[in-house]
Amino acid sequence: MDFDVSKLRRRADGEQATRRPRRHSPQLQDRRAAGVLEQQAEEFAEKAVLDLGPRRQFVTELQQRLRRCWPPSVITDDLFVHDDVPAWLTPSLAEHDPDGDWQSTAEQLSASTATCNRRLAIARHQVEEALTKAAELTTKL
Fold this sequence. Notes:
By secondary structure, the protein is mainly α. The protein is built from four helices and no strands. The protein has one domain (27-140). 67% of the residues lie in helices and 0% in strands. The chain is elongated, with a radius of gyration of 31 Å.
């Protein structure tokens, strides 16, 4: 076995031996990248749950408020086609609030529902995109 005396001298003199940078195999890099993407997908999902939970609660509260102030003179069957009346709008034993502004509440509900649906779609897209990329990298392996 041949020894490189110059390297031994450099080490003895306190010099650092030069090393070539490690190169990881493309498979290992793909596996790591897939793991990072899967982690991102989990983080996106967690953020969406934290964001959408309160928004959905607010939408539910608006639905209940609208149901309470819905005027009896406005027949829901006239507004909705066939049996498309939302379940939350069906008659209930809840106390009626004749002084509530049902039109304003309906506008708030519409805007809040649209925002909630839009944020849900964005979150789904982010999670699906990260998982799709991770799956593509995994199938290469």
